[in-house]
Amino acid sequence: MKRWRGLALGTLTMLLLSAPIAETVEAAARPATVEERDAARAAKAAERAERQAQRAAAKEARRQAIADAKAARAAAKAAPPRSTTVTPEVSAPSAPPAPTAKPALTDTSPAAAPASEAASAAEASVAPTGTGTSTYAARQKEIADRQAARAAERADRQQARAEAKADRAAVKADRRAALAADKAERRADAAAARAEKKAAQRQHRREKNARYKTLFEDNGFTYYMDAQNTRWVPRPYSNKEFMIDAWVRLVENTTGAPVGEDGKIRPARYFLEHYYISEARREVMFLAELEVTGRPNNDVKERTYDPRRWEKLVPGSIEDALYEAITKEMRGAPKGPGSGGMSLRDMIEEYARISF
């Protein structure tokens, strides 16, 4: 009994003593498991990164191969025909290596080694040789130069077309402006002509039955012809020739507008001039001039008729203007003797100054 009791007590004691050791071993073994788990996760992440890098490298290699094929076709179309001799040392350039993504964590586990080796093999397969790289660069530079030249030529053509279009638009605008200005000028001239014609018509209607006919304006005076006392008379010492016995009224234009003459309104101050006008010989004889304030007196002292007093017309003079205006108003000399409105007795009294 004592033996079994001692054995049981010893066993219990050992159990009690071994419990802290197991807990310590378990506690020591637990961190190792966490580290393994983290290492496995890192290895998986590295594998994923390597796979992604491989896929990206393969995709970039395919894209570059397609671009190289397109560039080669474009260069073949643009380049002139060359010799078909191929140099054995120069090989077709491969696509340039694509940059691989660097993994976030460096994994040295045996599982990550095959992925790294595969990526290195892919890079080695797409990397061109030294001679191929220089030839590829030269071709790419030649293609880029041609494209730049074509782009510059297109830009020059577009600029030339734009400048030509701008010049045509400017010419059209100038032509339209000139046509518009010419049209406006013609309209203004036509309107001015219509206004002048209407004014002349109104003046003619107003003076149709008036005693004083407006001749012209000059030097601040308006010249009127006394239609009642201006008439055709036979020229002395001539049986077939007539002359005009004209009375002219000069009214000072102080208001800037012609003074109305209707036979009823008389200006306060004016001048009267008496002329003989020979239409056939273009001569004029001045007889008298008087200044009138209000109503004139019938005591005018005039020169007697003297053939030596006939004056030739000076172009541009007042007498020349009076001659043109008065002969236009009188409308030609009468045809027969005695039709001027004067009898033989009137002629004797007029020119011989003999009263019967």
* First and last CA, distance: 214 Å
CATH architecture of the domain at 210-352: Beta Barrel
CATH-defined topology of the domain at 210-352: Lipocalin
User: Quaternary state, please?
Assistant: single chain
Mean of all residue-level pLDDT scores: 78
Shape: rod-shaped
* Portion in helices: 40-55%
> What is the number of E strands?
7
Structural class designation: alpha+beta
Computed over alpha carbons, the radius of gyration is: 64 Å
Task: Reconstruct the topology from this structure.
Blueprint: H1 2-78, H2 112-126, H3 130-207, E1 212-218, E2 221-226, E3 231-234, E4 242-252, E5 269-278, E6 283-293, E7 311-312, H4 318-330, H5 344-352
Antiparallel strand pairs: 1-2, 2-4, 3-4, 4-5, 5-6, 6-7
Features:
Lipocalin, 356 residues, seven-stranded antiparallel beta sheet
Summarize the structure.
The protein is of the alpha+beta class.
Question: Can you walk through the features of this model?
Answer:
The protein is of the alpha+beta class and about 350 residues long. It has a domain at about 210-350: Beta Barrel (Lipocalin). Helix content is about 55%, strand content about 15%. The protein has helices spanning about 1-80, 110-125, 130-205, 320-330, 345-350; strands at about 210-220, 220-225, 230-235, 240-250, 270-280, 285-295, 310. Strands 1, 2, 3, 4, 5, 6 and 7 form a seven-stranded antiparallel beta sheet that branches. Helix 1 packs parallel to helix 2 (about 110-125). The longest helix is centred in the middle third of the chain and has 78 residues, at about 130-205. The chain is rod-shaped and about 210 Å long. Residues about 85-115 and about 120-130 have low confidence and may be disordered.
